[in-house]
Amino acid sequence: MRRLKNSHAEQERGAAAALVAVIMLVLLGAGALAVDVGQIYAERAQLQNAADAGAIAIAQACHATGCTQSEAEAIAQDFANGNSNDESSNVQQVDMSVANQVTVRTTTRDGKSGAGFLRQMFSSALDAPPATVGAHATAALEFPTRGSGFPLAISNHCYNLSAALATGQVQKISYKPGGTCTDPSGHAIPGGWGWLDRSSPCVATTQTGNNQMGSDPGNNPPTDCQAILTKWKATILAGEEVKVAFPIFDNATNQGQNGQFHIIGYATFKIWGWKFGNNGVYEFRNTSTAPGMTSALACSGGNDRCVIGQFIKFESIDSFTGGASGGTNLGTVIVKLID
Questions:
Q1: The whole model's pTM is what?
Q2: Which domain holds residue 209?
Q3: Are 201 and 124 part of one and the same domain?
Q4: Domain finish residue from 141, 169, 197
Q5: How do the pLDDT tens digits run along the chain, 339 residues long?
């Protein structure tokens, strides 16, 4: 009887050992797959970051200065490599066939072997094939339709950005009573610029479309703009640039407190100087003796008012406060991911 009991116990121990071996094999396999799936997800995240960054960078660069297909592909490749742990990813395609859009597609590339697939760490022992993953992103240029900023609106007749240049010519935009402005050649033409009703100190909220933005009549600027003008002055004196997105109008109706502007879009002006009033921060580098100025650009004294500088192309990702899509293309765009 004693021997039969021992034999039965030995059989149970043998069965348990076999079961443990099977369970260990399953657990090891599951662990291997979990590690490799995590590796694949990490690779996919890197490729998505690369596609996102590449699409945004190409959209910015091509809007600012223009770019060829090969230049766009080089930009995408730099961002693809920079966003990969092994500094090696493949740019499968850069598609710029849709106006104001760019799509970047990235795929796996092994940084050591150059192979176009991901070598799995463990599950290859289970005869699992190498993995290939990819990602894509589409960035679009959209034209602002609303925004909040310095409460000054400028006529679309008063500047030159019609050739979509990276930088417009330096010019003086003058305010004159009677609703006229002066073009770069010194001719008085319809339009002008005017102060806007404010939503907060030295800030006007505007939007494009059928809405008419109320005017704040008078030759002098709002008295609560001193802080902003002081900051502009300090920035220029420090050797940096002041770029302001002004609302642009194509029509002005009525006068005085009943005056209104029809806003069509936003254009960025790199400011050289200004004369919004007399003395203090209300005038800066507005005379012919100021650095970089000429007699043609200078704003004369008295009650004359002007802003001096140049309209430029400008690309914003998050610094512009306005909405996008639907405004007129005036050189200022919002770059955003749409896919």
A1: 0.74
A2: 146-337
A3: no
A4: 141
A5: 445 455 555 555 555 656 655 666 555 555 555 555 667 777 788 889 999 999 999 999 998 888 899 999 999 999 888 887 777 788 889 999 998 899 999 988 665 555 555 555 555 555 556 667 889 999 998 888 888 889 888 877 665 554 445 556 788 887 654 445 554 445 444 445 678 888 888 898 888 876 666 666 556 677 789 999 999 999 999 999 999 998 888 777 766 566 677 888 888 889 999 998 888 899 999 988 988 888 888 887 777 788 898 888 888 875 555 555 567 888 888 898 888
Indicate the residue type of 271.
I
CA distance 214 to 206: 9
Q: 118 and 150 share a domain?
A: no
227 and 207 inside one domain: yes
Tokens describing residue 79: 């961002």
* 222 shares a domain with 306: yes
Domain count for the chain? 2
Q: From CA 161, how far away is CA 23, in angstroms rounded?
A: 73
| Residue 186 and residue 297 in one domain | yes
One-character DSSP codes across 236-292: HHTT---EEEEEEEEEEES-GGG-EEEEEEEEEEEEEEEESSSSGGGEES-STTSTT
